[in-house]
Amino acid sequence: MAKNMAQSPFEKASIDKLAMAKRCSHEGAKAGAKAAVVATIATAIPTLASVRMLPWARANLNPTAQALIISTVAGMAYFIVADKTILATAKRNSSFNQVARHEA
């Protein structure tokens, strides 16, 4: 029954904002995941190579430390890129920005 009722302009704007927020966060999550994969590969290669080649790293970096280094870099890359992507997408789709474009 509620689906057949006409939506007020405020309800429609609210639904549009929610859909846009969901799309922004989805784009951010995808970009963050891609960055995390790249960061994992870029960190794992030198970390594992240094453990094999450098005596200090072999003595001091056990497998837990190696995993911690790699996962920390991947996590940081994910959150930094996801945050920047969400903010850029929100800024691009902002209603304030669209009003300024229409006035110019």
From TrEMBL:
Alphabetical list of InterPro entries matching this protein: Enod93 (IPR005050)
Membrane-spanning parts: 31-51, 63-82
Keyword Glycosyltransferase listed: no
A Pfam family assignment: ENOD93
Keyword field: Membrane, Transmembrane, Transmembrane helix
Protein name (record): Early nodulin-93-like
